[in-house]
Amino acid sequence: MKVMVGGTFDPLHAGHRKLLSRSFELAGSSGEVIIGLTTDDFASAKVHPVHPYDKRLENITSFIREQGYTATWKVEPLADRYGSALDADFDILVVSEETFPVAVEINELRRERGRKKVDLYEVSCVLAEDGRRISSTRIYRGEIDRQGRLLK
């Protein structure tokens, strides 16, 4: 299977790790995972500071190597909300609950372009100790750490 997933992945928290792990599980040991990583320009729209692209790439690479995944993988720049997903040849798009509507849009636009619809796989959010979802914004605010433990 060829799987795509995308995001800013900063800071790389438990929710991101779940998204990436599920992508590799779906791809299988002989599959391929394409990770769209937001460019610095695209990521600058975030409400909190974001590390530079190279640092985020390094963090993703370290995580993947630590996990020992055997699927082929690559990271490509994601300059807008769709990236290469509109025209690429792949089977599954892995998204979070909050980005599922964008995945539906991608399939609609693919159909308009005469491309095959891809399967959408929604990964549920990882909850922090307080029962609210882990998010980069909450981490930057100092409410929780990357594993969802309360700091305040």
TrEMBL record:
It catalyses: (R)-4'-phosphopantetheine + ATP + H(+) = 3'-dephospho-CoA + diphosphate. It is found in: Cytoplasm. The lineage of its organism: Archaea, Methanobacteriati, Methanobacteriota, Stenosarchaea group, Methanomicrobia. It comes from Methanoculleus thermophilus. Residues 4-140 form the Cytidyltransferase-like domain. This is Phosphopantetheine adenylyltransferase. It holds the Pfam family CTP_transf_like. Gene3D superfamilies: HUPs. The keyword Nucleotidyltransferase applies. Signal peptide: none annotated. Pathway: Cofactor biosynthesis; coenzyme A biosynthesis.
